[in-house]
Amino acid sequence: MFEKRKGGKINILVQMLSMLMVFAIIVAIIFSLPSFRKSGGRIRAESIENTIMKYAVQCYASEGSYPPNLEYLVDNYGLMLDEKNYFYYYKAFASNFMPDISVYSRMRVGRN
User: Fold this and answer.
1) Which of 1, 25, 54, 87 is 20 to 30 Å from 31 at the Cα level?
2) Average model confidence (pLDDT) for the chain?
3) Hey, what long-range contacts does 68-76 have (CB within 8 A, 24 or more apart)?
4) Could you tell me the pLDDT band of residue 30, with boundaries at 50, 70 and 90?
5) What is the pTM of this model?
6) So what's the pLDDT on residue 22?
7) Across residues 46-67, what is the average pLDDT?
8) Phi, psi (deg, nearest 5) at residue 89
9) Is 7 left (phi over 0), alpha (psi -120 to 50) or beta?
């Protein structure tokens, strides 16, 4: 009634290895997600820095001086800042020198 199949142990071994590989892939994906978020946050922060620089250059081109602070760009040029998710550093040395602009993500390790 029941026939013994040849290679039965091999089939079981192949199935177990397949399940182990799927499990390993899932674990690798789960552990890599936080690093993707961190790098994505840094890329986004650099994009925001570049946008702020463009606004500052636009101000310099139209007024002949760089803005004294970020609030000036918000009030006069329509710059929108996401202060909930980012820290902004803006240091204007003189009105004819490009200001030092840095943006940092507020995302903390272990927090979404």
Assistant:
1) 87
2) 81
3) 68/92, 68/95
4) low
5) 0.61
6) 74
7) 93
8) -120, 125
9) left
For residue 5 the two structure tokens come to 């199949």
| Per-residue buried b or exposed e for 67-99, using 16+ beta carbons within 10 Å of the residue's own CB | beebebbeeeeebeeeeeebebebebeeeeeeb
- Are 95 and 65 contacting, i.e. CB atoms less than 8 angstroms apart? yes
Six token digits for residue 101: 């602009």
Contact 75, 23 (CB under 8 A): no
List, in order, residues 6 or more apart from 112 with CB less than 8 Å away.
37
Which of 107, 99, 105, 95 has the alpha carbon at shortest distance from 52? Answer: 99
Exposed, middle or buried by CB within 10 Å (0-12, 13-18, 19+), for 51? middle
For residue 26, how many other CB atoms are within 10 A of its CB? Answer: 10
Q: Which residue has the tokens 């994009």?
A: 47
Q: What is the pLDDT of residues 88-109, one digit of tens each?
A: 999 998 889 999 999 998 865 4
